[in-house]
Known about the structure:
The protein has 332 residues and is an alpha+beta fold. It has a domain at 59-163: ApbE-like superfamily (T-fold), CATH 1.10.3980. The chain has helices at residues 17-21, 45-62, 70-76, 87-102, 112-115, 128-135, 165-179, 273-286, 288-297, 315-318, and strands spanning 9-11, 24-30, 33-39, 83-84, 144-146, 149-151, 185-189, 192-196, 205-210, 219-225, 230-235, 240-243, 246-249, 263-270, 301-306, 311-313, 321-323. Helix 2 packs antiparallel against helix 7 (165-179), helix 7 (165-179) packs antiparallel against helix 8 (273-286) and helix 8 (273-286) packs antiparallel against helix 9 (288-297). The chain is globular and about 55 Å long.
Amino acid sequence: MKRFIVLVLIIIAISGCTEKRSLYRQTEFVMDTIVTITYTSEKDRPAVEEAFRTLKRLETLFNAFDPASEVSRVNQNAGIVPVEVSKDTFDLITRALDISRKTTGAFDITVGAVSLLYDFEKKTIPSITEIKARLGLVGYEKVKLMDSKVFLPLKGMKIDPGGIAKGYGADRAVDVLKAHGLKHALVAVAGDIKALGTRPDGTAWRIGIRDPRGGGDDIFAIVNLPSNWAISTSGDYERYVIKDGVRYHHIIDPRTGLPARGLISVSCIGPEGTMTDSLATAVFILGRQEGEKLAESLGYGVVVVDDKGEVYVSPKAKAITEILYKPEVKGP
């Protein structure tokens, strides 16, 4: 199943001819999505090219739909033998397991055993019987790490890095730019965005949050992203199918194997893209109150829209968030 992900956050342009001339943007299709890097000088292009090469390399390692990737090899050898992986893959899985523990499994990288049953391109939804047969294979605590090897002890277990890989990639791309001496840049891996410093004039990068029931250009909130912070959005409008009046989307609750209910959009804001990506998923699954409490305890803020269109902004996000209007929710 080839995955297609739409751009869920839109960078808001700020008027001013002088600054527009000082910003450059390079966009490529990487990690199965649209990636844009915004930077301030033509001489920085080699650094930007290296950042894109880094993202392309990570894609070859993490893509669970590519049978030759390291993640796929780990999945193919579940219940058979530990698989030696690169430092990057080992680091990603180690980070994912740590976040799984911190979220008590609301984010669980082994959800692939059930999440990969869904095919939103073909509009295929697994039966309850199929889901129940796979639920016993979900459980981050089962994963074994040894030296540079990863082992899934049960045949049929699957790692799905979809809820962390893009945020991790944004962090890594910013690391590359920083190592080249850049002071101001913005990396947007679809809805996972990481800032390097501020805009050139010292103001915050302004990031729009898409209306979860509006068109692709409809923005209901703006976040003034602090220097070196990240923002990630998870929504039930990214990949979904409506069947018998019910919306089935790609954010799967590891506890039930079913799409999480109650929320339709979660934006998580904080210092690290790896965390904002995975925490947005965890908050979506836990629900507003429990999810917000968790995010705030870890030093991250959230902007949440529930299935009635109510918008909630957590304390750590209040000072940097502008709500433009309340999304209107109609239908499933």
